[in-house]
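Encode chain A's predicted structure.
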Amino acid sequence: MGAHFFAALVVDGALAGALYALVALSFVVVYRASRMINFAVGEWVMLASRFVTFGLHALGLGLLGALAVGCAGMAGLGVAFNRVVLRRLVGQPLISVIMVTLGLGALVRGAAALTFGGVPAAIPLPVLASPIVIGGLPIAGDKLAAAAVAAACTAVVAWVFHGSRTGVALRAIADDQQAAMSAGIDLHRYFAITWALMGVVSVLAGTLWTLVAGGGLGIVLVGLKVFPIVIIGGLDSIPGTVVGALGVGVLESLAAGYLDPLLGGGFSNIASYLVLLAALFVRPYGLFGRPDVRRV
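Encoded structure for chain A:
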């Protein structure tokens, strides 16, 4: 019974970690290209999910049509935010960009509540409602499907960064913006592509999380888990993000199963931050991150 319980917790944590990885990926996409820290990632994913539920419930579209509405809306918002706001902050202190993203998060929370207040937040998928038994362990079908889609999306984004011309340009911009500009790379164009890509990833992440756990501000709270994940894995590392997300998911699941009954409910929610503090002492740039070395 003990081994079965442990295995069930590990599997459940790994499935949650796959969704965490996709949410964290929307953060890493922007950071890798522009070295910008987006503190509104949770609100951005929440807004993406609300676009999808609006297309699903208010416009009466199917799931694919609603996803198309969400992707178009979030990609357009990302490009507009980059053009109207971020282009004016080029060369400004980092604190200015951080404050802008914090303000963006507050704006998105308020605007989403006003705009989508009467739209149901759930995304039903009854085909996967029954559990699937694998190796004697019952696994929720919706969680398994969501984790599989999240893994596939993560692989596609990783390919974009490492196997396409756009990815080469984005990595060049991340390494040295001045050198990239001198080589003929249009920074503003590729920053717009980055935010559009982040919008699409946010739609997929928000949809999958809403499918599994419901929507609303719950996704905003999930966004707070991004920071331990990306710092533990490495801010600029997609493989590190995957490993960090799976580790945090399993850690939270085990803590909820074994420690919450002893220490009180809620300890599992802070377990990842305790690991984050330990990781900062041992390897401050993350398990897969690279130290920022500059020649002076």
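DSSP finds twelve helices and two strands in the chain.
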